[in-house]
Amino acid sequence: MNVEQLLKAHGKPEREVYFDNENSGWISQEVVDAMLPYFNKRGYGHPSITHRLGWEAYEALYNASEKIASTINSDVKEITYTHSGTEANNLAIIGGVRANKDLGKKIIVSSIEHLSVIFPAEKLSEYGFNVIKIPVNNEGIVDPHEIGKVIDKNTILVSIMYVNHEIGSIQPLKEIIDIVRDKNDKVIIHTDAADAYGRIPIDVKKLDIDLMTLSGHKIGGPRGVGCLYIRDGVKVDKIIYGQLSTQELWPGVENVPLIVGFSKAAEMMFKNFEKNIRHMRHLRDTLMNGILTSVDETILNGPRGDKRAPDNVNISFLHCEGEAITVELSLHGIYVSSGSACTSRILQPSHVLLAIGRRYEEAHGSILFKIIPSHTMDDIKYALKIIPKSINRIRKISLGE
Ligand SMILES: Cc1ncc(COP(=O)(O)O)c(C=O)c1O
Questions:
Q1: How far is the CA of 207 from the centre of ligand 1 (A)?
Q2: How does strand 130-134 pair with strand 155-159?
Q3: Which residue among 97, 172, 221, 387 is least packed, with the fewest CB closer than 10 Å?
Q4: Is residue 110 within 6 Å of ligand 1 at its C-beta?
Q5: Could you list the mean pLDDT of each consecutive 10-residue stretch along the chain, which spans 401 residues?
Q6: Which mutation among 113, 195, 346, 351 tests ligand 1's pocket best, with the greatest number of atoms within 8 A of CB?
Q7: Which fold has domain 3-27+272-398?
Q8: CA nearest ligand 1 atom 7, residue
Q9: Residue 23 CA: which ligand 1 atom is closest?
């Protein structure tokens, strides 16, 4: 593929609306401006070295942790930065199990976890751990009692995501945690909250959670930075080794500019939290209902209303390939992703869509739109003008008309 030629042929559409915030996000100028000084104006030193630029870096790290910790009601020392949400999930699953291996051999996850939870859990099964995947209902929601049934004295770790990244289903996490603690209060409980953060209120103390993953680019921060909340006193082992800096569990020099950007994005997401949520929910429902009523043979993936994250719209367009839709919409400046195997980097259609009972062909025609606070009603109206025509065109072509 010659990307230069492809881009030339594509051209720059008159209007652009970026909805692919699931995979990589647009960053506001405020977040960029917060990061820039830390590349070459201030705090570009090593945060563990004792000179002015090192102290500035240390101060920036501390302030960022204070900001992030305050949004989830945790303490600064409970935040460990990683270079992504993927790394934070690996640290939670592998590091959590390794540090607590005397607790048992059973690991429980849901069937719709992000692959950065599923793959490390499956890896541990090669080392004698028994991994149980709890199914979800057709809206993508786990029944807490199904988890309760499999918790026993041999259970070491439970990992259930707070909000699903593909279909926006919000799990009854507090209920799950209470049931797990009631059956065995030693179990380490982790939640991947990358898609819940900034969309639903999170209070780690009220939840009574041990470990929680966050990721920068899922809230309008830069990609390549994440963190793991580790409740004070919970044991986690290092999973990578090297020169330690300010963090006990994650060696290497901290990426101060990205961490500053992550904390700035968190600050902005939480500054007008209620207003942002109302706005995103309104746009979500307008887009979702608009597509479902104007395009026939469509299926909504995931729940409606309060059980769904305010930013998530996921619709299967029958008799269409996801790849054809992403390309056709791109020509009109609308950028989305698909749960089809052809557009993702793995060879299987989305395991999340299969877990809620979608057939292969339904998963192949699925499109994910992720709304962010800076989207406007005009963006949604533009999408609603383009989508029905584009789907019509794709269906006609695939029928050979
Ligand atoms: C729910 C969830 N967890 C974890 C991750 C991984 O985060 P990162 O892209 O920072 O590695 C993602 C990324 O999209 C996600 O959606």
A1: 21
A2: unpaired
A3: 172
A4: no
A5: 82 92 91 98 94 96 98 98 97 98 97 97 97 98 98 98 97 98 98 98 98 97 98 97 93 96 97 96 98 98 98 96 94 91 67 95 94 97 98 88 60
A6: 195
A7: Aspartate Aminotransferase, domain 1 (3.90.1150)
A8: 85
A9: 14
